[in-house]
Amino acid sequence: MNWNYLRVRYIPCYWPLITYWTWPFEKEVGLKKEHITLQVWKKGDNWGIHEENSFNVASAHFFKRIHKNYQNLEEIRQNALDAGNAAITHCKEFVDHKTNDLKAFVLFFDELVLLYRDIVRTSIDYWFFATQKCEVEIDKNLENVSNEDKKRILDMMASPAEDSYSQNEEMVFFELVKSAKKKGIENVSKEIKAFSEKYIWFPYEYVGPNVWDEAAVRKRIQEELKQPSEHHFIPNLHELQEKVIIDYALSDELIKLFRILHALTLLQDDRKMINSQICYYTNHVVMKRLEKLIGIDYLLLRYLDQELLSTYIQNKDVDELNKKLEERQEISIISRKNGNLMILSGRAAEDYLNTRSVELYISDSTEITEVKGQIANMGKVTGIARVIKLSSNVRTFKKGDIIITGMTTPDFTPLIKKAGGIVTDEGGITCHAGIISRELNKPCVIGTKIATQVFKDGDKIEVDADKGIVRKIK
Hints:
With 474 residues, this protein is of the alpha+beta class.
């Protein structure tokens, strides 16, 4: 069986990934052959793995669906936003309720599974499966265009003209900085509080630990007042895109493909916004409450599901629960085969992966000196590799350092502004690293799959984003 490794990132938690394949995916997509989907965790690293044939079938299915519904792109996006807001409301209401009844926590997780299924079906499945197919179709339509013209077309047309949620947050923040500069930071406490209440979840992503509480926002303003950062907004992008369409006489089909790509990018961006809020409430607030009720570190409780919690409610065996959670943290899988879901950990998980020839790490990364990936933004730069799992854990980062990571998210933006270049394991031209590298004109190679395994923190490397190659320099 051939495997498609779709994600390798540091995500040390089950929620909300545990919900992804809990619905009749096979029936909707029309899969007839054996289909296996895997979520694998090993010491915090997480892999999303699909059986290759089923992924290709799903990719064609969702691309065909969104292409057919081209006139309804705004409706598709709104349905996804509605699903996300319903899940966020559920989390907020549970947090506000402040119950100590463990059975209520089980019900909370049960309902969250159902609500997150709707996010998967209305949002994730579209951009997860259709984006790569859309990019391939765009590439086909540009095969007779020179590399120089293709770069200009993609630079202008690959990103939606609408501001992302991270750009909106940044614009609101800079208005707050202006106010602090004018009035004095000691006189904008109410504005800081309002900003914190609106965006406390923003830097959290899956597991934080950073949040924009009032102290963090105040510190961020102080740093901005000392050393203003560069903005990365492209003004009048819509007008620039219209000019590219005219200048290069883009075909109706190519324009349509770019509009679909914009819709997929917005769906993914909206989902990041929604996911950060759900993760903040679930993996931070809810798990810290369970820590007090059960007596197990909330970082370990992030591997909890309803079944384990229900068992604990019955037997009150803290040691047994702690042991099972540690085993899941060490190595565990969630497997869906032809509609049947199961969770395995420890030796059972290792045996499952071995018998199906699922390899999580490359055998000997020391022998590999270069990796290849997709060009997100051209350029060539030499610098020191900084291998980053969580942006919030970075304490020192020098101007010109090269970011090596699974995938960047909006919380990486301050680092990206200082970076000489970006290299990721994941991503396509619409991923966060791809978009922001074009906005800031940083050399960027994405989708290398193994860069975080090949390069070590402190390696001197060359990023040749003209050719899509990243290599060690002795």
